[in-house]
Design a protein that fits this description.
There is one protein chain. With about 675 residues, the protein is of the alpha+beta class. The chain is built from eleven helices and 27 strands. The longest helix has 21 residues. It is globular and about 90 Å long. The two termini are about 60 Å apart.
Length: about 675
């Protein structure tokens, strides 16, 4: 027996070596595949097609460009055909037949492979039955049949069956059946005709129904931040006596992490089902240090531009008790390199773009309920743009409320003193030449069902913001008639949606869309009532790495001076994001929109359109990106030069805009 194994191993080695030394894979083609593309089937195979000769040549020098030649191995090809057969079976073609034909060119020592596919009739689900479900109430049965992953009349999918099993298990474990598990899945295919009738029987073991019992808090390291057990217990989304729910257990763990007090937080239940109908919970926690000072390297895409810089932050966990967080941060962010010289003229030139921010913030995580938090912050901001320098002293109060698992609401009240100095011959908007005292209320609703905060491949994000400025100063002005300080009086609304669709099952190709509409309207007349125009930091701006990418940040607008913003914004972005090799990816994009002073000025010829391509490099904190934007249609160009094809190649290169950024463009 040992001799036989030795001979078999030797045969495999010799076969592989012989194959690799003799026949290079020149091409891999598919015939008969109607449902799945050749590219998708080719990705299943380990046998690879050799790259062109020029790429093989460059690959010899440093392995940076191209790839090596790929050789035919009969054993690997046989396994590839089996994998393709399994793929077809798991996607509803249970009688598919897969074989191959080989065309050897002994002179060139190469082989052309043709994979022949006979898909056969598809299998469609004709019956689905659930067995072993202990809960027969109408409420649970309604949940059981709501939005299943498999339905009668659909083509059979092994992944769909697995997803449905997990969905039913989650329902059981969220309704008290803590130890529910899958028993088996039985799929019965009938004799094929034009289709293959398919019956699916799903078997489960529900077990006993449990309620929550006593909860115990166990610190793993008491030498760090001190905390009271009530702080932990109030973050639980369940109480003793309530039905066990696995999702509420998981969400409660996430709430403990969001306190920023614990580096480890787990809620454990007995591994063996207890004889009684209650489950005790053991909350195990490892606290973080009470004090933390952190130097920061900062990179962001604020204001649709690539900003880089540094900062220093201090964090006090459990400030004055009750899990309050005190944070003090200072930061310097740049959009240009001029400020690196620390020239004393940097704040008054017309080249430097940067931002200095100092903020002290206190967060009360439990405000009225464990779903609501309160934040109070004071900040001083120096906002340096090319045409102006703005100084802002702001007091902000924010109430955050988690309305549902994926929905949040924010209520912000900003009281600020803003001063703007013009740095160019261009006059700043009338009314901003004197400092403003502003009171601004905003309410934001957002729903986030994307699957990844850094680089989503499916899901959507929707947001609505309503904003109003002028209530408090207007009240003061009405009471104290002699008060003459200027202030902004306006209302504003912003709607934004982002949608992501995975074109490949593994998320290697994603189609992404974004739409944003914003409008702001002044009310009152500042010349008569001492009210001023909309502050610069609350206006709309167009152009930049997250906007219309054929223009630089704050350079696009159907207004006289786009750098001072406008009152009406429309943006739409479309991207095809695809994987290239390793951690590298690419995108093609089309952006459209513009900036106006009023909705009455919007016309089709004033809609700017940009197109281009970009590269992405994946990191643990999200992708780094570079985009190359071109003006497909420029409404501000002279007639006869507005469309891309009406301009010369030199003009296109000269007008090309390069954007650097972190994370995806949207």
């Amino acid at each position: 027996m040992k001799l036989f194994r030795f001979l078999l191993l030797g045969l495999l080695v010799v076969s592989t070596a012989y194959a690799q030394d003799n026949f290079m894979v020149n091409s891999i083609k598919f015939e008969g595949n109607k449902t799945f593309s050749s590219d998708n089937l080719r990705k299943i195979m380990l046998t690879r097609q050799s790259p062109p000769a020029i790429l093989r040549f460059f690959y010899r020098f440093g392995h940076l460009i191209g790839d090596s030649a790929q050789y035919y191995d009969p054993l690997v090809l046989r396994a590839d055909l089996q994998r393709i057969r399994y793929f077809y079976r798991d996607n509803g073609f249970v009688f598919a037949r897969i074989d191959s034909s080989l065309n050897f060119n002994r002179k060139k020592r190469s082989v052309n492979i043709v994979v022949n596919v006979d898909e056969g009739p598809p299998a469609y689900i004709t019956a689905i039955d659930y067995h072993g479900i202990a809960d027969t109430t109408k409420q649970f049965q309604a949940l059981l049949h709501k939005k299943p992953f498999i339905e009668m009349g659909e083509r059979y999918s092994a992944k769909g069956v697995d997803d449905e099993v997990q969905r039913v298990l989650a329902l059981l474990q969220d309704n008290g059946y803590a130890y529910a598990k899958k028993d088996s899945s039985v799929v019965t295919f009938s004799a094929p005709t034009d289709t293959v009738p398919t019956r699916i029987d799903l078997y489960f073991f529900s077990g006993k129904r449990y309620r929550w019992g006593h909860l115990t808090v166990v610190p793993m390291d008491s030498g760090k931040v001190k905390f009271e057990k009530k702080i932990v217990l109030r973050e639980m989304l369940f109480e003793p006596g309530q039905l066990y729910s696995a999702s509420k257990k998981s969400e409660s763990e996430q709430r403990l992490y969001s306190l920023n007090m614990f580096e480890y937080a787990r809620i454990n239940t007995p591994s063996v089902p207890p004889p009684i109908d209650s489950l005790s919970g053991r909350i195990t926690l490892r606290p973080r240090p009470t004090h933390e000072i952190t130097p920061e390297l900062l990179v962001d895409d604020e204001n649709n531009a690539f900003n880089f810089g540094g900062g220093l932050g201090y964090l006090h966990r459990d400030f004055l008790g009750d899990a309050r967080l005190l944070s003090i941060n200072t930061s310097l962010l740049l959009q240009s390199f001029q400020l690196v010289t620390f020239s004393p003229k940097a704040l008054s030139d017309t080249v430097t773009v940067g931002r200095i921010d100092a903020t002290a913030q206190l967060t009360q995580p439990y405000f009225l309920s464990n779903a609501t938090s309160l934040t109070w912050g004071i900040s001083f901001l120096v906002d340096k743009e090319k045409p102006y320098l703005q100084l802002v002293l702001r007091n902000r109060v924010r109430v955050s409320d988690r309305l549902a698992q994926y929905s949040m609401a924010y209520l912000d009240w900003d009281i600020e003193r803003a001063k703007v100095d013009s740095l160019q011959a261009i006059n700043i908007p009338a009314g901003l030449e004197t400092p403003q005292f502003n009171s601004i209320l905003s309410f934001t609703l957002q729903r986030d069902k994307t699957n990844n905060p850094f680089s989503p491949t499916k899901g959507f994000f929707n947001m609505l913001t309503l904003e109003e400025g002028g209530v408090l100063p207007n009240l003061i002005h009405s009471i104290f008639k002699n008060s003459d300080f200027p202030y902004a009086q306006y209302w504003k609304v912003v709607l934004m949606g982002k949608w992501f669709f995975s074109l490949e099952g593994n998320g290697s190709n994603v189609f992404a869309m974004k739409a944003k509409v914003g409008y702001a309207q002044e009310y009152g007349t500042f010349l008569q009532d001492s009210t001023g125009p909309i502050p610069l930091n609350y206006r709309f701006f167009a152009g930049g790495s997250g906007s219309i990418r054929g223009w630089r940040t704050r350079e696009l607008g159907d207004v006289q001076y786009p750098e001072f913003g406008g009152n009406m914004l429309i943006e739409s972005n479309f991207e095809d994001r695809f994987h290239l090799i390793g951690d590298f990816g690419g995108v093609y994009f089309v952006d459209a929109g513009n900036l106006w002073n009023s909705y009455k000025q919007i016309t089709l010829p004033t809609i700017a359109v940009a197109t281009g391509f970009g590269l992405r490099y994946g990191t643990f904190f999200g992708p780094l990106r570079v985009d190359f934007g071109f003006r497909l249609y420029d409404p501000g160009a002279p007639p006869g030069h507005r469309f891309m094809w009406q301009r010369t190649g030199t003009d296109l290169v000269r007008e090309m805009v390069v954007h650097f950024g972190i994370l995806q463009a949207f």
